[in-house]
Design brief:
It is a single chain. The protein is 42% helix and 13% strand. The longest helix is centred in the middle third of the chain and has 17 residues, at 167-183. The chain contains twelve helices and eight strands. It has 273 residues and is of the alpha/beta class. The structure holds 3-methyl-2-oxobutanoic acid. Residues 31, 50, 52-54, 92, 146, 189, 191, 212, 222, 224 line the site of 3-methyl-2-oxobutanoic acid (KIV).
């Protein structure tokens, strides 16, 4: 049987994502931080691959996304872009590389585009980072927004719980979503907010809204690959659906390998030169 990509090859662009929203086709997105996973995820038909700063947690073992650097993000992104042929590749600008001023934001975005070969950047925030978004867009670099739970602001929130449950925060979120749409962002991520609010925003903005923990009313969904494939079973939020149990496949496989080496069963005569 041919793969999804063999049947349906056209490269995903920001314009194609907009067309998908317009015809009501849901957009499937996942994170990837390396060449091997990016190839598999792309081959399986994901529309957008995010080199998320969640790499700080998942790849580097940090407690938050704050420590990851632009150099580290570019290194991860370089591997990903080499593995992708169809999906649109987006890279997170890490904490501290775009909030200070718009010149620095543009310099960070240009580095990502030039050095990694990715096709867009993602920034967390609304009105507060307006100038940075405008400046990056002026240089012809597509920007994806990110509102709701914005993990780079964890020290301000103090918790990873659901955002915008109160009216004031919900109203600010709606205003920010409209702003990002008006500025010309090509898509907006909404993270961990009430499903009703996410649906309302998705229906009110022109660009695709991609949800994570934001219910089924958005134009698409995104999950972290390692979470949805069951590589990190300690992380179990309500919104996460697991599509595999790679943690047990890997530990069982490695356990067998260790036993075979210890028992002198591996390598056998057919596995040597
Ligand atoms: O860094 C990341 O993985 C993200 C997604 C959760 C949207 O920003």
């Amino acid at each position: 049987m041919s793969s999804y990509n063999e049947q349906q090859k056209p490269k995903v662009t920001t314009r194609r994502l907009m067309e998908m929203k317009q015809r009501g086709e849901k957009i499937a997105c996942l994170t990837a931080y390396d060449y091997t996973v990016a190839r598999l995820v792309d081959e399986a038909g994901v529309d957008l691959i995010l080199v998320g700063d969640s790499a700080s947690n998942v790849m580097a073992g940090n407690a938050t996304t704050l420590p990851i650097t632009l150099d580290e993000m570019i290194t991860y992104a370089k591997g990903v872009t080499k593995g992708v042929t169809r999906a649109l590749t987006v890279v997170d600008l890490p904490f501290g590389t775009y909030q200070g001023n718009s010149k620095e934001a543009l310099a960070s975005a240009i580095r990502v585009m030039k050095e990694s070969g990715a096709e867009a950047v993602k920034l967390e925030g609304g009105e507060e980072i307006r100038e940075s978004i405008e400046r990056i867009l002026t240089a012809g670099i597509p920007v994806m927004g990110h509102l709701g739970l914005t993990p780079q602001s964890i020290n301000k929130f103090g918790t990873y719980s659901v955002r915008a449950k109160e009216e004031a925060e919900a109203n600010k979120l709606k205003k920010d979503a409209k702003l990002l749409d008006d500025l010309g962002c090509f898509a907006i991520v909404l993270e961990k907010i009430p499903a009703k609010l996410a649906k309302e925003i998705s229906e009110s903005v022109s660009v695709p809204v991609i949800g994570i923990g934001a219910g089924g009313g958005t134009d698409g969904q995104i999950l972290v690959f390692q979470d949805m494939m069951g590589m990190n079973n300690e992380f179990s939020p309500k919104f996460l659906r697991r599509y595999g149990n790679l943690a047990s496949i890997i530990t069982e496989g490695v356990g067998h390998y260790v036993k075979d080496v210890k028992d002198r069963d591996f390598p056998n005569e057919n596995e040597q030169y």
